[in-house]
Design brief:
The chain has 178 residues and is α+β, with helices and mostly antiparallel strands. It has helices at 20-35, 62-69, 72-78, 81-84, 113-134, 144-170, 172-176, and strands at residues 7-14, 40-47, 52-59, 92-94.
C-alpha cells in the first residue's frame, strides 16, 4: 500500500444488549469528530443485524488515517467503548475493491485479487444487463450526460450496501478458501 493513496478503514462492533441506542449516539459523536480531521473523505454506517454495526471511514492518505486513529480526541472516546460493546476490534484497513469483500471477523484474511476481479465482473455484468433491460428503455430521451449518470447513481450504492455484502457472504467459502 502506498502512503499517499486513499485508504478505507472498517470498524465492526456489536453493541451489548440494551446498549444499541447508546452505542449509536456514541458512534455519531465519534463520526462528528472524525469529520473535522484533515484528510477525512466520508463515513458510512450500516447496521448488520440486531446489534452489529459496521462503520466504514475513508481518508485521503494512510498518514491522515493514522493521525486520526492516534488522536487524543479519538483515544479519549474509545475509553467508553467497553461499556457499550461486546467487542472492541481494531479496524481493518482496506484499499480499492477490498471494501466490497470484507465480512465481519475476516479482517485479517485477504482475498486474491483474481477472485475479486472474477466476482466483481460477474456481478457487474449481471447488474448492467438488468439495468439495460429495466432502466435503459426509460432513459432514451434523456441527454447523454444524464443517461450516463443513471447507471452509477443506482449501481454504486446498491453494489456497496446490498449486492456485494450478500455476494461476499454467499461465496465466502471460495473467496476465503475456508
Amino acid at each position: 500500500m502506498k502512503a499517499n493513496e486513499p485508504v478505507t478503514v472498517l470498524f465492526s462492533r456489536t453493541a451489548k444488549p440494551g446498549q444499541e441506542k447508546a452505542y449509536e449516539d456514541w458512534n455519531k459523536q465519534l463520526i462528528r469528530l472524525s469529520e473535522q480531521q484533515p484528510g477525512h473523505v466520508m463515513t458510512s454506517v450500516v447496521a448488520d443485524g440486531d446489534r452489529r454495526y459496521i462503520t466504514l471511514q475513508r481518508f485521503d492518505t494512510h498518514q491522515d488515517l493514522e493521525r486520526w486513529l492516534k488522536s487524543p480526541l479519538r483515544l479519549e472516546r474509545l475509553s467508553e467503548l467497553n461499556m457499550l460493546t461486546e467487542d472492541s476490534l481494531e479496524p481493518a484497513e482496506m484499499t480499492g475493491m477490498e471494501t466490497w469483500f470484507r465480512l465481519p471477523g475476516q479482517s485479517g484474511r485477504h482475498i486474491p485479487r483474481w477472485k475479486m476481479v472474477i466476482t466483481t465482473f460477474c456481478v457487474i455484468y449481471c447488474f448492467v444487463l438488468l439495468m439495460n433491460l429495466s432502466v435503459l428503455p426509460y432513459t432514451t430521451d434523456l441527454p447523454l450526460l444524464v443517461r450516463a449518470a443513471v447507471f452509477p447513481v443506482i449501481m454504486v450504492p446498491l453494489m456497496t450496501y446490498i449486492v456485494m455484502p450478500r455476494v461476499t457472504r454467499l461465496f465466502s467459502r471460495w473467496l476465503y478458501d475456508r
